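User: Second chain of the day. Same drill as before.
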Amino acid sequence: MGKTFLFCLFFFFLPLSFYFSAACAATCVTTECHQSIVQTAQVHQPVAEEECSVCHVQESVEHPVKSGKSFVLAEKGAGLCYQCHDALNVKKTVHDPVEGGDCLECHRPHGSDGLYLLDVKEDQKALCGGCHEEETSADDYVHGPAASGACTSCHDAHQSDEKSLLKQETRTLCFTCHSYFEQGIKSAKTIHAPVKDKDCTLCHQPHSGAYPDLLTEEMPDICISCHDEIGRRYKKVKTRHSALFIKRKCGNCHVSHFSDTDNLNKSATEMDLCLTCHGEDDYSKSDALRNIKKELEGKAYIHGPIEENKCAVCHDPHGSDNFRLLSGSYPATFYAYYEKDTYEFCLKCHEKILLFPDTSIYTNFRNGKQNLHYLHVARRKGRTCRTCHEPHASNWPKLINDKGASFGSWRIPIRFVLTENGGSCAPGCHGSKDYDRKDPVSYQSPLEKIEN
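Assistant: Same format as last time:
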């Protein structure tokens, strides 16, 4: 009888034991009330460990209550987070929400589908753009990390000893991705001054910009903001180098950061640089650039500056008040009346005494003492130097023009013949004329004199 009673009593209390066991196992996050806060990819550690009381303190025995709250936070604002997390507001630059103790501006307190309990998954742009709208609104050209929403690739989210919450000093930070520049700067012969001792942001936008390569201004404006002398000349000159306003503009000739050449030129010599454009035939254009490379090939005589690969001796690479970017005054026309400064360009190197009316020593182009250079340039229809001389190269001595000078669509032949003491020519300008330094040719009448 006693055993039967005990057996029955056991089965009577068995359901109650299951009830109390389940009640004890139930927590805030396993009951129907708060289950959703753990149904995320990332769960805050106290929540995952069901240690809700780390952050929440119970004030009322009854829970839930019909009105008011039975739990309060253990600390206010960031003080609650700093119970576990180190203080993140001690460096020179502190993110505004951190400084204001507003951790929940960016983080979810219980769980999130994004890393670090952020309010977003991978694209941080949506989160940061809530406050930093200007920095995250895309222009035509966007920096890779900004485009992919990887804001914390460059910025610390909480605090930094650098400006703008950068993770490192600007140049060092840029080099973490652009390592090629860091290596190049160490060994380069020429380093652009801003690259050597300024922030990259002097020239480049860090997030997005309206111009290629994230430049802060369009070329050439960004360049002449520092290179003001070139800028002033470029804006005032009559003839501008077209390379400055097509394609990559200043970048057509110069590299921006460092180079093993002078003046950050893209090629080893001035002439190599110039021939990248002036060394090919472009039959698609009616006014294509002259192929100077072809003009130089196989020539027996090369103009001195060209022989030294120095195009800039004669041509200003940026702009000039003279045609063809010449670095001194020189007539643009076939005919030009000779005046004091008419041939300043040529006479920078060639002696002015070359143009004395009579001489026995300063030139071999003379009939006795009569200076035939002077004769050709001095009158109303004076011929310019390029009528008889090639500016770059020729197969004849003294760069005599073997193909003839351009006169509209016609090439005026020279037909020059050299002799021991002089020579002769029979060009399209006048009939055949001879000259001799020792035994001058006599022209009896004024009409028979050597003249243009």
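Residues 5-25 have pLDDT under 50 and may be disordered.

User: Great, on to the next one.
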